[in-house]
Amino acid sequence: MINRDTVTVAIIWIIATVAVEIAFSFVDLFPAAASEEAVIVDDAFYFLTYIAIPVFTFILVALSYSIIKFRSRPADDGGPPEDGPPQRTHNAWVRGWMLVTSALVVTVIIHPGLTGLWEMDEAANKDLDFVVKVTGVQWAWSFNYPDQNITSPELVLPNDTHVRFDVTAVDVVHSFWVPAFRTKIDAVPGLTTEIHANITETGNYDDDINFRVQCAELCGREHAIMQSPVRVVERAEFNEWVLSKQ
Amino acid sequence: MTALKPLGRAILFALIGFLIGAGLSAALVEAAGRDEMKEPIIAGGYMFALIGWLFGVGVWGSWVREWFGATVKPFHIEGWGRYLGFSTDHKVIGVQYGVTTIVIFLLAGALALLMRIELADANSTLLSRTDYNTVMGLHGIMMIAVAVAALMGGFANYVMPLMIGADDVAFPRLNALSFWIVPPVAVLLILTPLFGGMDTGWTGYPPLSSQGPTGNLLFLMAFTTFGLSSILGGLNFLATIITMRAPGMTWSRIPIFVWAVFAASLISLTATQFVAYALLMVIFERVFGMHFFDGTIGGDAILFEHVFWFYSHPAVYVMILPAFGIELEILSHFARKPVFAYKWVVRAFFSIVGLSFVVWAHHLFTSGMSSELHGPFMVLTELISIPTGVVFLAAVGTIWRGRLWLKTPMLFAMGVIANFLIGGLTGLYVADVVTDLNFQDTYFVVAHFHYTIVGGEIFALMGAIYYWYPKITGRMYSERLGRIHFIGMMVLYNVTFIPMFIVGAQGMNRRVADYPAEFENLNMFITVSSLLLGLAFIPFVYNMVNSWIRGRKAGDNPWGARTLEWQTTSPPPEENFETQPVVVEDPYGYGDPDAKHFEFPSGSGHVAEPAGGDD
User: Is A47 near chain B, with CB under 8 Å?
Assistant: First the structure.
């Protein structure tokens, strides 16, 4: 059904979509990305947002236009306005809409997730530098470096390395999350879960609070403060730290 | 005073039941030589107290007696006293549910404000971390109860039988039972702080929930009990819609809200049983010392998460499907146009029901479950956007080129479109495995589910309250106060929750009383706007109470709506319709002068007074 209302809404929709997309391209929501995984996550977010914006503006423009244009005065006795057109459905519209939304879902919207998973897999299959064993206990983290034979309450990592974290818990379910790396995995009693980080940036908790291990699964009284500082340093500095701990 | 007799008897029987149950359990614990175990005594006492409460309030006198060949004495009191006993009238039960859930909603809202005041600065000042966990857990479970029961227990109960031209639900006594199970739930939750609070949140994951204070046990028992109420309600509504429709009310003629209730009831009846089992198993861990979910001795903690979400994800559709139904119902009557693409919407509702059962594991992307399952669950979850998209198209199609009558219910129904749009689209990021690895358990998730449940369902609940208020009370609310409430709630709600997306993306995790000081400014802003949002409910409460007492008489059909509940007196008589209406067409024949939804045979039926609106 092409008429003046649909044409007007289509034009406003296109303008609004372009405006919002441009405005959004200036938005930077996330803290510094310190791993390859973090870049995959952030890219997926922006991809999904650029897809979601046209849907968002379409519904809002159609809704706002309707409120302004189709608003009616009540009848003289204060009762409802006279009836609108007896339009019950318009199958072409419904089929077209379902075709477009289904096509969006099965081709575009699942894209960043599936490719992102594949990229994460690729990153996890790169040559491993070393493993850190992470243990959560109410309410602290401890980090064991089996290759270096040290245990530390602070997570210190060398830059430009691929690290695997083997995560477990002693008492209840915790979750191992470094916001600067973007990924998290639960620490489950009786189970070892794993997560990878291909680290690309140096940083530390004092300069950027996103360099912290934060428990991200409610684990009782002190859950909020179950954090440990993270320090990503250059390789030489890391080696010194290891020596000082051994 | 006779009005208070059933309640007084119920409380007395509950106390006696508690003493019997606690005594028996204490004797068993003693006999087993396990004197240190206190929780079996509380659980045993509660079980008998619940039975005592139900028997006292009327299950015995007006139901169970007949199983033993004795005569029953049905509860029958005129006036306000009928709300305080075992009434089997679905309209009384609807009001009981409605008022109870609104009171719980306001209480849980006050808890939310308490949390926000605590979160105004980065450290624990007002509440200790233990108290914060308790307040947060209670806010969660109380709001879940409201979200499940307000539309289904309240409005579906009151309106659905009227809409299908029935004189009551299929099982009136079961209906009363499912309401009277709810007060013990509220009592248990209110008692939790006295038993050390609860530290698990409403999700109650073991092993945490099988340890910790006894308050956790009270929470688990409350949730399980509430599940029973939900199962019975779902069963009853399905039976009612299948068997009690008026002559001529074929499946293609029933109002869209009734379809939504049918779809949601399918989920209530089936899925709720899973969460009840999961919670019972945790109760058994605490009470009998079993270890189903303890990974260190052969159990599996992730198993609970699977079973829990196998209910709790479909449960969000128990909340949102009736909201969709109300939204489309209101949009049609206030745009004076038929519901657009009615049959497609019904198909969409059932597609949502089907899909809701195969997406639960998207809550477990970071749990450590097998990673081969990530992709399939992500794709299945995103398929839900297709039927949900149809509901959006129907909403926009219904108001398109209509004659919009912008009364308060209509404002709220359009608010649902705008808010749920944000809730639905942000769902993409938490359904997507990759972005969810970051957002899981952050404020982004908090903002997302508040946009679906508050922005979607609670706005629809408010619309439903204003829409059916004249039918239920017989009086008209104040339109001006209604508009003030809508504008205040719409603006402040968005101002409160949008910043939560940002603070979540910046790395603030949820369920914490303390957070890094970097997030303090945004949190202060959220706290101030949430307090203002709380103020927006003052005109609502005043309007509801004041209009019920002093409001103008509303007339039978102030909205000129075509569905059957408006074709009887306001409030309707006990038998609902003086004469059985016969349905001849669907109720959405707006714009068609020959359209006719119903007729009263032999012309003897009730003739609705002409529409007379407000202002």
Answer: no
Rounded-to-integer distance, Cα B72 and Cα B65, Å = 6
- pLDDT for A2 equals 77
Q: What pLDDT, on a 0 to 100 scale, did the predictor assign at position B613?
A: 41
A190 φ/ψ sector (left φ>0, alpha ψ -120 to 50, else beta):
left
ipTM: 0.96
CB-based contact B328:B398 (threshold 8 Å):
yes
Q: Is the minimum CB–CB distance between A67 and chain B shorter than 8 Å?
A: yes
Local structure of A196: helix, strand or coil: strand
d(CA B303, CA B612): 57
What rounded mean pLDDT belongs to chain B? 93
B381 within 8 A of B362, measured Cβ to Cβ: yes
pLDDT given at position B601: 81
Answer yes or no: are the C-beta atoms of A30 and B506 closer than 8 Å. yes
Of A130, A151, A150, A129, the C-alpha closest to A140 is: A151
Cβ–Cβ below 8 Å for B404 and A67? yes
3-state DSSP assignment of residue B199: coil
Say how far apart CA A26 and CA A29 lie, in whole Å. 10
A203 vs B: CB within 8 A: no
* Interval B356-401: pLDDT, tens: 999 999 999 999 888 889 999 999 999 999 999 999 999 999 999 9
Residues of B in contact with A72 (CB under 8 A): 336, 403-405
Is A161 within 8 Å of A142 (Cβ atoms)?
Answer: no
Distance from C-alpha of A193 to C-alpha of B254, rounded to nearest angstrom = 51
pLDDT of residue B608: 57
CATH of segment(s) B87-553: 1.20.210.10
**Contact: A218, B208; criterion CB under 8 Å:** yes
C-beta atoms of A44 and B435 within 8 A = yes
Average pLDDT over residues B65-69: 92
The mean predicted confidence, pLDDT, of chain A is 94
Angle at B509 between CA B503 and CA B515, to 5 degrees: 80
In which band, very low, low, confident or very high, does the pLDDT at B615 lie, cut at 50, 70 and 90? very low
β partners of residue A231:
A156, A204
The full set of domain ranges for chain B reads: 1-84, 87-553
Tokens 């997730």 correspond to: A113
Cα separation, B61 vs B83, whole angstroms: 17
Over residues B266-292, mean pLDDT: 93
CB atoms within 10 A of CB B381: 27
Q: B414 at the A interface (CB within 8 A)?
A: yes
Chain B interface includes A234 (CB < 8 A): no
* Helix then strand then coil, % of chain B, to nearest 5: 70, 0, 30
d(CA B550, CA B352): 43
Residues in CB range of B350: below 8 A, 6 or more apart: B263
Distance between CA atoms of residues B301 and B285, nearest Å: 12
- Torsion over CA: A145, A150, A151, A153 (sign): negative
Query: A101: which chain B residues are within 8 Å (Cβ-Cβ)?
Result: 385-386, 389-390
HSE on the CB side for B250, CA within 13 Å?
4
CA distance B138 to B199: 10
* A81 close contact with B: CB closer than 8 A: yes
Q: How many other C-beta atoms can be found within 10 angstroms of the C-beta atom of residue B1?
A: 6
B128 phi and psi angles, rounded to 5 deg:
-70, 165
Give the separation between CA B516 and CA A209, rounded to whole angstroms.
7
Distance in angstroms (rounded) separating the CA atoms of residues B162 and A155: 64
Question: Is residue A243 predicted with pLDDT exceeding 70?
Answer: yes
Amino acid letter for position B471? K
3-state secondary structure of B257: helix
Position B34 confidence tier, pLDDT thresholds 50, 70, 90: confident
